[in-house]
Amino acid sequence: KEENDAAARKIPAANFPPVPKRLIHYVGKALVDYSMINDGDRILVALSGGKDSLSLLHVLNYFKKKSPVKFDIGAVTVDPQTPEYDPSSLIPYLKSLGIPYFYERQPIMEQAEEVNSKTKVSICAFCSRMKRGVIYNCARTNGYNVIAMGQHLDDLAESFIMSAFYNGLLRTMKANYTNDAGDLRIIRPLVLSREKYMAEFAREAKLPVIAENCPACFAAPKERHRIKIMLSAQENLFPSLFPSLLKTMQPLMTANLEDILGATKSNEDDEQIGKCSSGTCEV
């Protein structure tokens, strides 16, 4: 640990752009409100290279330095080995930050297409489960007990509307929960942050954002994109839309209706709500 601390002190401060106060405020509030981080936690950030996960990495690194709660962070990227998405440029970037980094290569898209040709399982659902399995395995192998995901308030609102519209269920992604095996916690520190906060930070800090162009997601307009457009139009009419939606969703961010009514449901089921978040296949 002392060697790691010494190495971290040698990283130029310029590699860590200042995190906006607004992002610090909302992430800090989420960390406290949902009891996301405990002393001694080892947190693995699921890093796709998009604006959200890169922003999350930097804001957690900020809190690692400033918080009285002591915790460690690392990052993992799953490379599905498709020509449309190449996150390998993250390798030198994470090295420049001095943050422990795990780059996992797996031909997920090839496997997904094979499964899709034989079954009715969607490519997105298969990809989501496979990525989650790779990330869980990486965390267990390397001694991390918490996985940090990059979904934000816009994602949760879109998931809530989609679940109500298409499935007849009051559900959204949870802020902090334990996986079914009971050995990993999954947290979403950006749940109170609007997507535009991360977009602004990534642009101003010149973060090395990687465009994820999954052919399964971009072959045609998707439902999530249509919901995003609908919510944007409604927000123009009702500026307090997202605070209202957050108030509505808060009970569901810790427990879904099935939990409240005493029905049994796997925590892992919630991850299927989150696939294809913000136009990309998120875990």
Write a compact overview of the structure shown:
The chain is α/β, with parallel strands linked by helices and 283 residues long. Helix content is 50%, strand content 10%.
| Content of β-strand | 5-15%
> Helix segment count?
13
Strand order of the largest sheet: 3-2-1-4-6-5
Average pLDDT, all residues: 85
Q: What do you see in this structure?
A:
With 283 residues, the protein is of the alpha/beta class. The chain contains 13 helices and six strands. The protein has helices spanning 2-9, 21-33, 51-66, 90-97, 108-118, 123-141, 153-167, 195-205, 215-218, 223-237, 241-254, 257-260, 271-274; strands spanning 42-46, 72-79, 101-105, 146-148, 176-178, 185-187. Strands 3-2-1-4-6-5 form a six-stranded mixed β-sheet, with helices on both faces. The longest helix has 19 residues, at 123-141. The two termini are 30 Å apart. Residues 1-9 and 273-283 have low confidence and may be disordered.
What descriptive keywords fit this protein?
6 strands, 13 helices, disordered N terminus, six-stranded mixed sheet, 283 residues, alpha/beta, 10% strand
Blueprint of the fold:
Blueprint (H helix, E strand, L loop, with lengths): L1 H8 L11 H13 L8 E5 L4 H16 L5 E8 L10 H8 L3 E5 L2 H11 L4 H19 L4 E3 L4 H15 L8 E3 L6 E3 L7 H11 L9 H4 L4 H15 L3 H14 L2 H4 L10 H4 L9
Parallel strand pairs: 1-2, 1-4, 2-3, 4-6
Antiparallel strand pairs: 5-6
Helix pairs in contact: 3-8, 5-6, 7-10, 7-11
